[in-house]
Amino acid sequence: MTVLSFDEQGVDVVYDGTEFRLEKELIEDAIDKSYPDVTDHEVLQIVEPDPSLSGEPQRIAEIVD
Protein backbone atom coordinates (compact mmCIF):
# COMPACT_ATOMS: atom_id res chain seq x y z
CA MET A 1 0.00 0.00 0.00
CA THR A 2 1.23 3.49 -0.85
CA VAL A 3 0.56 6.46 1.42
CA LEU A 4 0.81 10.01 0.09
CA SER A 5 0.87 13.04 2.41
CA PHE A 6 0.64 16.35 0.57
CA ASP A 7 1.77 19.80 1.68
CA GLU A 8 2.58 23.04 -0.13
CA GLN A 9 6.22 22.07 -0.72
CA GLY A 10 5.88 18.45 -1.86
CA VAL A 11 4.68 14.97 -0.98
CA ASP A 12 5.82 12.57 1.71
CA VAL A 13 5.52 9.03 0.37
CA VAL A 14 5.54 5.61 1.98
CA TYR A 15 5.89 2.98 -0.74
CA ASP A 16 6.55 -0.68 -0.07
CA GLY A 17 7.84 0.14 3.42
CA THR A 18 10.20 2.88 2.19
CA GLU A 19 9.65 6.51 3.17
CA PHE A 20 10.81 9.35 0.92
CA ARG A 21 9.86 12.84 -0.20
CA LEU A 22 9.01 14.18 -3.64
CA GLU A 23 9.68 17.92 -3.80
CA LYS A 24 7.21 20.05 -5.73
CA GLU A 25 9.81 21.01 -8.37
CA LEU A 26 10.46 17.33 -9.14
CA ILE A 27 6.73 16.66 -9.47
CA GLU A 28 6.24 19.70 -11.72
CA ASP A 29 9.08 18.55 -13.98
CA ALA A 30 7.79 14.97 -14.14
CA ILE A 31 4.15 15.89 -14.85
CA ASP A 32 4.79 19.15 -16.76
CA LYS A 33 2.12 21.05 -14.81
CA SER A 34 2.22 23.54 -11.99
CA TYR A 35 2.18 21.80 -8.60
CA PRO A 36 -1.33 22.94 -7.53
CA ASP A 37 -2.82 21.53 -10.76
CA VAL A 38 -1.25 18.06 -10.41
CA THR A 39 -3.63 15.36 -9.15
CA ASP A 40 -3.10 12.72 -6.51
CA HIS A 41 -3.52 10.07 -9.23
CA GLU A 42 -0.67 11.59 -11.25
CA VAL A 43 1.64 11.54 -8.21
CA LEU A 44 0.69 7.93 -7.51
CA GLN A 45 1.61 7.05 -11.10
CA ILE A 46 5.09 8.51 -10.50
CA VAL A 47 5.57 6.29 -7.45
CA GLU A 48 3.96 2.98 -8.48
CA PRO A 49 4.59 1.17 -11.76
CA ASP A 50 0.95 0.04 -12.17
CA PRO A 51 -1.26 1.67 -9.51
CA SER A 52 -4.89 0.79 -9.03
CA LEU A 53 -6.60 4.15 -9.28
CA SER A 54 -9.99 4.50 -7.64
CA GLY A 55 -12.28 7.44 -7.03
CA GLU A 56 -12.05 10.83 -8.63
CA PRO A 57 -8.61 12.42 -8.90
CA GLN A 58 -8.09 15.45 -6.66
CA ARG A 59 -5.90 18.42 -7.48
CA ILE A 60 -3.19 19.17 -4.94
CA ALA A 61 -4.64 22.67 -4.55
CA GLU A 62 -7.84 21.05 -3.21
CA ILE A 63 -5.97 18.69 -0.89
CA VAL A 64 -3.69 21.22 0.83
CA ASP A 65 -6.35 23.93 1.12
What would you say this structure looks like, in words?
The protein has 65 residues and is α+β, with helices and mostly antiparallel strands. The protein has one domain (2-63). Helices cover 31% and strands 28% of the residues. It contains three helices and three strands. It has helices at residues 24-31, 40-47, 60-63; strands at residues 2-7, 10-15, 18-23. Strands 1-2-3 form a three-stranded antiparallel sheet. A hairpin with a 2-residue loop joins strand 2 and strand 3 (18-23). The longest helix is centred in the middle third of the chain and has 8 residues, at 24-31. It starts with a strand and ends with a helix. The mean pLDDT is 95.
**Beta-strand proportion:** 25-35%
By DSSP, the count of extended strands is: 3
Instruction: Give the overall silhouette.
Output: globular
Which quaternary structure do these chains form? single chain
Pfam family, one: DUF5800
InterPro entries: DUF5800
Give me a quick take on this structure:
InterPro entries: DUF5800. It holds the Pfam family DUF5800. 31% of the residues lie in helices and 28% in strands.
List the SSEs and their pairings.
Blueprint lengths: L1 E6 L2 E6 L2 E6 H8 L8 H8 L12 H4 L2
Antiparallel strand pairs: 1-2, 2-3
What attributes does this structure have?
65 residues, alpha+beta
